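Lab meeting, action items carried over

1. Structure of the two-component assembly. Owner: GW. Status: complete.
Input record:
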Amino acid sequence: MMTLILLLAVWLGLWAVNARLARGRSRAARGAVPLIFGVTLLALWELAVRLYDIPGAILPPPSAILVRFGTDAGLLAQDFAQTGLRGAFLGWLIGCGAAVVTAIAIDRSPFLQKGLLPVGSFIAALPIVGTAPIMVMWFGFDWQSKAAVVVVMVFFPVLVNMVAGLKASEPMQRDLMATWSASYWQTLWKLRLPAAMPFLFNGLKIATTLALIGAIVAEFFGSPTVGMGFRINASIGQLALDMIWAEIAVAALAGSAFYGAVALIEKRVTFWHPSQRT
Amino acid sequence: MRGLAPILTVVAVIIALWYAAAVMMNRTWVYDQAARAGETVSFAQMVPLTMVQERPVLPAPHQVVAELAKATVFTAPTSKKSLVYHGWITLSATLLGFVIGTGLGIALAVGIVHNRAMDLSVMPWAIASQMVPIIALAPMLAVVMNQLGLSGLATKAVISAYLSFFPVVVGMVKGLRSPDRMQLDLLTTYGATRGQTFWKLRLPASMPYFFASMKVAVAASLVGAIVAELNQPAGIGARLLQGSYYGQTLQIWAALILAAVLAAVLIAVFGGVERATLKRMGMAR
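Predicted assembly:
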């Protein structure tokens, strides 16, 4: 009973701080609110695990995960290089590149677009992770098969967005290019590609989250003895849950950093777009 | 009808490419068999042989359809070999998780719209939560849930719910905020309470957003259920993993197509409900 009251007190106390800060107008206060919320969650987690004696095989406390992070940093880095860089990032690059090229290629044919767009958005909604066992069978256990799954996963969301983006320039602007007797490629390069960028980055950002998931899940279907998915699967057998949580933390950090990097590039490339002007 | 022609063309091209790829990828086996038997096969003999293999590298479309028909229509639904049985297990987990996720998502969205502190603190973490590859957590969650004495269904539902709550939160926050200043002001002049504003203005206005995010959420929910099944005895995900262990490519493809059909049906059902509701509300576009 006492422990429950203690937990509630921590929760309500930090929440009250947040509610006060949220009423403020300063930027620093508003930036602090989500941070405090995160700290609250972590504190409650740690306290609950310690006060209720939850065994580490069910839920390890954040401090144990942090310790694991320190002791096994080398292993985690190796796993990340295998899954995050070779599997997810290379797959993302190839998949997004192929999608952009395809979008430009079918751009000249309205017929192909009318056919490919519904099919593409349909495929984008399908559980494509399911192709992982097939890719492992075709491309072997190493990172190539993981990259292949990622390519298939990211291709359609990016394609659909890019095709929509290429249509984004206004008829007036295209007419202006025509009056300057710009060639198809000049119009593409100077008008339509820049106009497509906000849409493209929308697709790229969706693809970043998909890429890491695809690479990790594909490792469940067979992998060399390195990689984040492999480590998670192997640690379950040993009930080393702190290791699993450490891998998850790496994935979350890497995913956020990747997303942040794409968002940053977007800001530089599409600085002219209303949503980027502050 | 005119919109259908390009789609059918693209589908036909995909199927044709599929057949070509099946011939390309399966021919090695045919040539190997022939070499072992000391025979030579011509191209015309090779092509049909690539489409009748038991464990092809890439099965031809009609083989997959035949396997799918065998596993759904010609097998008793109670049998462990029936895809109806496995499909139902996946579908029940999907729907349970979807209902939980949608409920949670709507509750969070209502809180976010009405409480500034919640808006500032929850929203960034809801976005960060999607960076966690929860799907990778599925096997661990299954172990933990087992220790707590919860069934496999609960594990799958939790993962489905986790994947489906996010699109609902984002869509509903947008939807509940979609009434403009004028409309909100009008209700204020009527002396409407916050509750009345919510029921009579915000909620009806959010319906188009609601249905759009439902369609995304149900697809995400299905993905969650399938991946959560990877280390469970039954379900579409289990069929995928077993198929990959034993090299049963036909089984994998049949399970994959079933998953695709399930996704398509679920999205179509919500699309239908969406059209009917929006039409009645006079919001159809």
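2. GW to write a short summary for the group page. Key points so far: DSSP finds eleven helices and no strands in chain A. Residues 141 and 223 of chain A are 5 Å apart (CA to CA).
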